[in-house]
Specification:
By secondary structure, this protein is an alpha+beta fold. It contains 14 helices and 12 strands.
Length: about 350
Amino acid sequence: MTAKVRVNILGDFSIQDALNQEVRLPTRKSRALVAYLALHAGKRFTRDHLASLLWSDQSDRLARQSLRQALSAIRAATGATAILCDSGHVAIQKECVCSDVHDFERLTRLKTLDAAEDANALYAGDLLVGHETGQAVFDDWLQVERERLKEIARENLGSILVRRSQDDELNHAVAIANSLIQLDPFDESVHRKLMRLYVRQGRLSAAIRHFNDFTALLRREIGVSPEEKTIALYHELCGERAASPALDTLKDYAFVLEQMVQCVVVTDLASNIVGWNKAAEAELGFSKDFMYGQKPTLTYAPKRDQSLSDNLFKLACARGHWSGRVKLLSKDGKVRFQNRTVAPLYDRTGTLIGGFGTGLPG
């Protein structure tokens, strides 16, 4: 069998020659052209069509000249026999060139688990990432092809998920569900499947935490709440958690955090301090008994602005944590600086119950 030039266009673009060595094309449009021809291997296109596809912003003469230059670069990369050209038409020979897209689609049609997983390994990302050309006809075609291939990838992953969900060991199924979510972050059926997989793994808190994270994503990105089915599943899981041994309280969490060597402050959702450790006492001079029930802004210099504490906590909830240098006022009136990290505090159900901050002199 004759060795073929391989064109990889799922995710990053690359070409390997018949000796499996990577070769390069000089311009984005030459890469776009070889990808277009490779996806239609064996089909003859008129030169006018290809020129208007990628050089519609040039005169006919310049567009044809740009096409000739791109074809010359492609020949040099793929070999003289890969491209068939005459005065009016251009084609890539099927016998000389293969692509990851063709292999991906062929494997998904086989409908076996091994083939599906091989196809998934080939789907390295969207078609021709970063190779928009600014030419409307080509870019419109590219967008349609991207969505078509992404839909095939989703269906392929869905078939793998169904099969892997029957395994006794579910780590593979969880990974596939997360891959599906990366392809379509708003497919709630997959989010529900992932939550149920977590439960089957004995990770009830992970399932509830995933619901809370997904709910925050929906509200932040598109301003909606989860579907009724997803909310019902959440309540079902919370019922299971309620039937299990009693949850730790916020004060119990504070007790653990107070044992850290850094300065620690723990607050409830109303920003009242419920945790204040020995390091914080030594650094700022205020005792735990005095600080209990106070607001953290008591120590924020120079104006002790409540909005500062509230804003830091909101940022921490939105981002997962906030870190930065803050100016603090100790009991003796001296200004001190701390490198502080603020983070939300969740209980085992994934419910937000407060926040905490750690700090080191800075």
